[in-house]
Write the structure tokens for this entry.
Amino acid sequence: MGHLKLEILCLVVGSVVALLALNIDSALANTGSNADEEGGPVFVKEPPSKVDFSNSTGAEIPCQSRGTPQPEIIWLRGDGTAVGDVPGLRQVLASGALVFPPFRAEDYRQEVHSATYICLARNSIGTIHSRDVHVRAVVTQVYDTHGDQEYIIKGNSATIRCKIPSFIADYLDVVSWHDSDGNVYKLDNRGVFEDGKFVVLPSGELHIKDVRPEDGFKEYRCQTKHRLTGETRLSASAGKLVITDPQGSTAPRLSGDTQISGFARMGMKGSTFGLICPSQSFPPGIFKWYKFTDGSSRQPVQLDDRLKQLGGTLIIREAKVEDSGKYLCVVSNSVGEESVETVLTVTAPLAATVEPAVQTVDFGRPATFTCHYQGSPVKNITWMKNGKRLPQTEAVIRIDAVRREDRGMFQCFVRNDQDSAQSTAELKLGGRFDPPRLTFKFREEVLQPGPKVSLKCKATGNPSPEIVWELDSKKVTNADRVQVGQFVGENGEVVSHVNITNVHSNDGGVYRCTAISKVGSATHTGRLNIHGLPHVKSMDKAQVVAGSGMVKTCPVAGYPIDAVIWEKDNRVLPINRRQSVFPNGTLVIDNVQRNMDQGTYTCVARNAQGYTSRGNLEVQVMVPPSISFMSFGETAFAGSATQATCLVANGDTPLQITWSFEGGNLSSHLGLKTALIGSRTSMLLVEPVSLGNQGIYTCTARNAAGVANASAALEVFVPPRWIVEPTDRAFAQGSDAKIECKSDGFPKPSVAWKKAAGDGPMDYRDLKGSAPGMRVEDGNLVISAIPKQAEGYYLCEANNGIGAGLSAVIYISVQAPPQFEIKFRNQTARKGEPAVLQCEAKGEKPIGILWSRDGKRLDPKPDPRYTIREEILSNGVLSDLSVKRSERTDSALFTCVATNAFGSDETSLNLIVQEPPEVPFGLKVLDKSGRSVQLQWSESFSGNSPITRFYIEYKMSKSDWNSGKDRVLVPGSQTMASVYNLRPATTYHLRLVAENEVGTSEASQSVTIITAEEAPSGPPTGIAVEPVDQHTLKVTWKPPLREEWNGDIMGYYVGYKLASSDKPYLFETVEFSREVGKEHHLMISNLKTYTEYSVVVQAFNRIGPGPMSKEVAQHTAEGKPDHAPQDISCTTLTSQSIRVSWTSPPLASANGVIKGYKVIFGPASSWYDEKTKEIKATPSSEIILHGLKKYTNYNMTILAYTNGGDGIPSTAVSCHTEQDVPGPPTAVKASVMSGDAILLSWQPPSQPNGVVTQYTVYQRTVEPKESEATSQKIPSFQTTYEISGLKRKERYEFWVTAHTAIGEGQPSKSATTSPSNKVPAKIASFAEKIVATHRDEVKLPCQAVGVPAPEIKWKVKGQMLTQSNRLRVLPDGSLLIKEVTRKDAGDYACKAENSNGHDTIMHTLVVQAPPQPPSISLAGATGTAITVRLKSPSDSAPLHGLTIHYKQDFGEWEATQIPPNMSEYTLEGLNCGTRYQIYATSYNSIGTGEASDILNTRTKGQKPGVPSAHKFIEVSQNSVTLHLSSWDDGGCPMLYFVVEYKARHQSDGWTMVSNSVKPSGNYVVLDLSPATWYQLRVTAHNNVGFTQAEFEFATLTLNGNQVGPARTNDNGRGLLLEVFPWLPEWVDYNMIVAGCAMIVIIVVGLAVICIAVSRRNRGPESFRLRDEGLYAQPDMRGMTLKREFRDELGYIAPPNRKLPPVPGSNYSTCDRHKKGMNHPTWNGRRPAAATGVPHTYEELANGGGGIYYDDHPPVPPHAHSDDSSLYSKPPNGVPGQDEEICPYATFHLLGFREEMDPSKGSNGLTLPHGSTTLPPPGHGHHRGGSQSAPRGSNTTRYGRGPVGSGVVSSVAGGGTVGPNGIINPPNHVFSPEYDDPANIEDEYGYNSPNRRGSLGRRSMGSMRTVPIPESPSPPPPPPRPSDSPNSTPSHSQMNQSNDSKESNELSEAECDRDPLIRNRNSVSGGAPGNMSTEEMRRLIENRNQNEAHSIPNGLTPYDTVNV
């Protein structure tokens, strides 16, 4: 029953185990499936093989890979070591990229910037390497390129090279060539290379075809481009051609060392190559190109579109790899031949692909990877596996049987010297290959004999393993008591058992279970101990190979065993150092030797009782064979015999000796025999020896112990023997000859050909130079186009060093027809001299010669001047044709014909009879200037010799041709040239002479010219530059030398620039001073501080500017450094000293010479407080600061200072002083807690001097007697300590010390007390000042002791605490306050009380919050600065500083920070005359507080003021000088002037002279006509705005006189007499005109009054005057607006009030004015007004300026009687058309609500002073144009200056500027130029279709001449919302100013000019308030005679000046 239960239990357990195993197997299967999805690394973005970059740009090399899991990127050097970051030079990014940042040249490191890198990617699958990445950084260096100088014979092709320094040559490309004539020859990127004269070759050379003499006059510069930086640069020096005339015939010769070395070219596939053949000769040679194929044979290059030939240069476009090879250029002429070889290597980018990319192979199956590669050349192939080099070097790698360790990443690398490529493949194992793994192992056991034993092992694996059992190294098999079993479980697990029944002691021993499969094995070993006596089991004989080691464990059974020993020959081992015996019975013998170790060994086992057991082991030592040296002895020759002996010197017998040949068995037919000599020797016999016996022979010896091999090589030497023996041959001349000569032998014979030097078969010499085209190819003699000179005896020799060799002598005959080497040539002869024509024919004799002339047979008999002579030569015939005296008619073509039996040939000789050229003719002048003249002529007869040059001879008219002439050389090909270096304004005679090689012609007729004037030829003298201040230089100079003026000096241009800059000069103009010897000067301002400037000066005259002077360099004065010192570092030395070091700021920012440095330092905690900072100065760049606070963080800044002041401080750096021993604790309390305990409390040290690490509490007894102090260590966070175990009657003393890392500090004050049973309330906490931050939580401590426990009570600011959620008392008595506010600050009292006493402490709580807003007010303002006054509120938290925010209207906010203690601050560098908004904030350690109110203010400044004409203008004959300094700048610096002019009679527009005239100095307007009237318009600009003024002047006559008036002024008398001729002369015409005008005015006035009264009673209500009147105007003084109407009347602010226009207002803002919206205005005096419809905005004329019906206004009394014509008339003869009037000078009261109602609106109403006349209805003025009518062609209304001055000026808008600077009012000022205010444009958002007029308006301009004292000011504008006193600036309010319509040019004060109204009584010099009505009327209607002189400044109040 028990057994049944046990079996059931086992069954259940087995099921559970099987189930678990199944789950585990499934999990493993899932894991395997996931693993199948894994992939090795593959590069996604592989780095390039070559990376070149400039140090100014840097480079980033990408490297990205993919795989599962994601691979890791690591960069390696070429040697395999990992790459790390080098700060500033190299960095590896997280993305895998390798980054080289830009670096300085001095930071270059070769190991970083010129190295080979490899990107490595790895994951759990494997590792891959990228291709080699060759990185090369190029440091920017100064370099220059130079053009080469080429010597060339005329008529040849030249090649000019661009010399590039070697260190930069790899990065520069020649892109073009430039010659001195301005021609540019660019590199043809398309590769077409048209056959022109100038061609840029692909390699950068300039190819010049057919060089002529004129090519030598040019210079050639190459332009290069840097491939890395893109910089282009012309060569520093030019290349030149040195052209020489041929000195007779010259054979072709190669330039340079080409003859020796040839050329080599290398480039990429697809590139364009130019193979040059730099040869020159005379006559010019013929070029032929060949390419070598099949080693030594050559073929002519076939030319096509891809292969072209330019001269001697072969162009190869779109090069292919097949184009690689050796090219031969052969150049020949009639004299000789030369050749040069060029090796072309065309490379193609390497690429590799491994197939298959992923390969899955089952275990044990073969695998193959094939590497397919492309590109050229390929130097080697290598393989890597998982980043490790494999030995394979072939393209295919094979694995015969895949193992587990073979899985991973395989890579194929293809490399050459410049490039590399790689490809990746992955090898995966198919299925699941798991090596055996033991999942269950048996345990070692100790058992008693008798029971059964079961040993079990379990194993898993794929495939399933087999388990084998061993006992003491012997296999366990089934026996009677032993059973071995094995089965496979359901989960695939192999289970094996060894079951032993009735176990015996002999069954004990070492058991081993081994799981074996083809994938691997796994082993477990364990001992089974069975109690019993020792028993040594039997041991089998052991066979050991000599020299190896032996290990044997004694098989001992029984238990326990006390000892196991080994014996040999009754001696206990070990007995030597090679033997070792271990306690478990293992014997180890190293390097076994037969004579010492062979024999019987005994194992002895013993137990503690002394029982022993013995067992023997027989050991046999076997010796393997070894072969002594084997060789074939001496050299073997073919036909002889040889042998090799193989002797096995050592080794056990029997031996087996065998032979093999080249790895295979011996073959008997090769004559090989073997013989065994004894048991140890074998001999190989080779008889007879033949070439087939050559190879490697191997002898192999075998026995039971091993195998030995020995090999020897047999070399067979064979003497040469003929294969093809050469024989005599005959060839026709010109054919290709080939004679074979072949032999064989070993070594392979070398074949050499030689040629006999003479006629006989002897004295043979090398072939070189024997004949052109002769070569040896593969032993054969080849002669291309065999010439006659190749005929003779030849010797062919074959030799290999074996024997005498072979030789054969042959004769080669060349059968040649007559042949002339030169088919055509030119021959020259000089006229009158003899000439000889020769023709030499070579060939087989006899040869006949015939001569002909121009195709006709030449017979010398009729003409005795001709003679023919023949001479027989060894190789032909020489014939001479002689001409006794050459004449011009002898120039002809002579032909020489030679004939023999083999054919005929002819040659032509062109005889040219040369003579000097004839006289050139047709010399004429094409162009001339001050220093040159261009001539042209016609070419005469050249004399049959090319004209080599012309000479232009010239002289001054006063010189003669013999001594005073100069020459200009002109190339003979030109018929036009220029003569330079002439003197201006000088008379010259010029003539022409022609020259050829024969002589020169007579001179041509001369021509006469006079050169023109020129600009000055010399610079100014005495130039000096001195610094005035930091931004200004003063330049002084004197005029040039008088002879260098070349005219009248008009002025000077002064140029200046930075001395270090390459930019052009900035010039300013200075007027010429006519005082002799006077020094000129100019102040140059707005310069940089302490900067060196270069200054030049040049004079100019009418023609233009002269040469610049030499640069004068000068520094401006020193200023403050602009940059702070750099690289600041601080080092703590001690607890009270710090070393600070730095480097100086950049030299460019020093602004002077740095005198030293200031170190500003202070504690960081109070850095904001200037009082805590200290300053130390030092001249060096290092300082040690002493006396600092201990363990304190210090901030420090450093600034540099110069003579100009302190520079900018650096950013603060921090440094902490070292720790020191702390100070004493601040206070100590000893509080009695009970009769034996005391609570000691203390406060931390006020000066901890470091981090307090602990406290030490000391105590001692002081009463009744003193005792030694004891101490106790307390942690640093604890400040209380309870001391117990004390005695009541003793008095104790306590004190405390603090510790830092340095040591123990000073002791605190002592506290004494005695324990007591009566314990009153005592507070152990200390009263403190506690600082809390706003909104934080704070805890006020109050720890109390006492018996009974005291009651804690808190008072807050004297009041009992009422607890709440925010304020509550904690259990320990402390008071907790949450979210502290400012109101919580104050005193907090804690009281502890019990029955025995009470105690109280007082805490002070300080709450720190962001500061309160400061107050800001205006302290002052200048043109460019505003000073504000600041007041900061006091607060608990120290203020760290203030921030001032400011901006101008329409600008952006700017901010600046200032110290907290500064009460005033000045904002500098502001724009002049500009409105600014300013507010301030303050900040502390908590944060930034609220902003202050916004301060609205402006800088000072006005628009420019107009000067008087006589101060501003200075006239001359052809120019006018403007004294710009006479303008008033209005308080703001002038920006620039715009200068325009036109002639007074000119009807079209103005001529712009310049729109950017600098405001300094004078300005000259040139190119004016003498004695001419001009109008000048000048506009002056500054930051506030601009002022425009017009002037009239007349230039002087040619004699320097002033121009008289254009017309006489007869006061209109002449015109009046023409109309009314009957008037007597005594009539005063002025009175008549005045009287008529008065009558007209009275009549019109009465009519208007009548109409007004009529409409008041009966007209429409909308046109009636209100009863109460709009204005109360008693005698025109009050002019007040009634309250009820003023309430209804909306005050409309001027545009500067920042309010939008009200509908109906007509403010024409400056913005509109600038937009050019020109509205035409109505003029009541124009004919259009005759319709009876007056304008709604009519104004009265100024100062009695009445209406004039003639063309002229009345002449003022001060004018001359005949000057009235100078006064202007209205344009087009129409009176009243006034100048523009800026509406800002007119104040409107607008905004009646009725205006908005079309039914109530009036079309217009104007209320002049005292007027009640209403305009008629119906008029609506349209605002379609500008605010004023445009000027006509003659809109000149100017006052008259002094008689004869010629200068009259005008202020735009009317008014003249007289010579005294007074602005006179215009003749017609008041015209209705104001638009109807009701007609508002759509631009303001009010679209009014009816264009209504305004009901209530008055023009302040119409009051200008009305004397109304105490006139009221306009009502103030309504307050804006932001003006309320309690308003705070918000963000939106701060930005509202940008939305206003305010103009940047007109201020509010300028528009609301109240003082002008209040000062109206200043007109006409008296108190006009006493005037009668008649006087006022006269004042309005008539011009007061003295008015122009009585008005101050020439303006009336509220006068209008057009701006």
Remarks:
- The CA atoms of residues 195 and 379 lie 39 Å apart.
- The two ends are 131 Å apart (CA to CA).
- Confidence is low (pLDDT under 50) at residues 1-36, 257-262, 1662-1973, 1979-2003.
- The chain is about 5% helix and 40% strand.
